[in-house]
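Hey, sorry to bother you again with one of my protein questions. A protein chain has come my way and I'm curious about its shape. It would help a lot if you went through both lines with me. I owe you a coffee for this, so here goes:
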Amino acid sequence: MYRVTTLRNGLTVATAEMPHMTSVSLGIWIGVGSRYESPAINGICHFIEHLLFKGTKKRSAREISEAVEGIGGSLNAFTSEETTCFHARAGYDRLSEVFDVLADMLLESRFAPPDVVKERNVIKEEIAMYWDEPQHLVHELLNQTLWPNQPLGRPITGTPATLDAISRGHLLSYLRRNYVTGSTAIVAAGRVTHRSMLRLVNRYGRRFETGGRPAFESSFAEQTKPRIRLFTKKTEQTQIALGIRACSRHDERRYALRLLNVILGEKMSSRLFQVIREDRGLAYSIYSSPGFFGDTGDLVISAGLDGDNLVKTIRLVMRELRRFIDVAPSAMDLRRARDYVLGQIDLGRESTESQMNWIGEQLLGYGRIFSIDEIKRRLRGVLPGDIRAVAQGIFRPERLNLALVTPIESPRGLESLLRI
């Protein structure tokens, strides 16, 4: 189903041929993100992402969006810690038009000085919006606590101060150095053939800057006990995010951690949802999610609740973490978790956008695409004892970090609750 070709200039082209579909999802993936930035230019990848929509030598900002939306398609982009992606979806017969727009954005954007000034202000408004959203703010604060004084702890958007320091020259220089063939994968999924995609890319191949993918700054941990970051804000709810440093995407334990997370808090039948919301009504929203990077990772438990229920909730969360340490999950719990993940993988295979994301994330994260059968085999190989072992390895005091956005003015007494 998946085909990958690396061109002579280093550009990677990958496809998932889904001939039964009527659409195609297309993405230009760049293997750089916020953790590749120095402190002085924090936010530059996200800044570039914005500016690529603001006009090229042959299209205005409006013409860029109309060129895709005007044929019934959609156009968007995102920046993460380790990747940036510009993507679109449209009818399969419009593939060449859509790719022309994406390639034009990446290769011919003008970065006009007035647009740089205007978009800098737009991103500042985006930052202000996030800071007004406690559910977003608490995760920004958690990242600062998990990864202090290192790129993973800095905001993807940058800050008003770093944005003011980033000039048009910085933007163009960073683009030329990093958005190069060795960092780039062009991915298409849907009613498309690999041969036709190669022909399309070859029309533009010489216009891509050649070069290799840069390296990111390695993460480090100097933690010896639980850390708490409290942000006092007049809100109706207390938002909490408990972050636990875990393993990287290259660690074999990631399969066990993925299943542990399902049992813990990924869905409504998971333990945290049942114990905290269904049984006791302490929170409206509570869930957990793992994150994997090139050299590290995390497991984050998030909840929104009344401040009066904070202590009870944290105690119950810690009880559930200890339960994984003390007792391996039952065979039935493991089977349900595995069946859920396998089912989600199969459902994702029906979506061109999910397939495009799967390919892009794997190519840039691993340098290869794992087959669905291989992923399923690894998941089926996880035993109850493997889940207990990963819990014993990461559920430790020196890996726990708690962030709160709350009307509460002092974290006094909270650290004593973070005991495993």
In short: The longest helix spans residues 113-131. The chain has a mean pLDDT of 97. DSSP finds 15 helices and eleven strands in the chain.
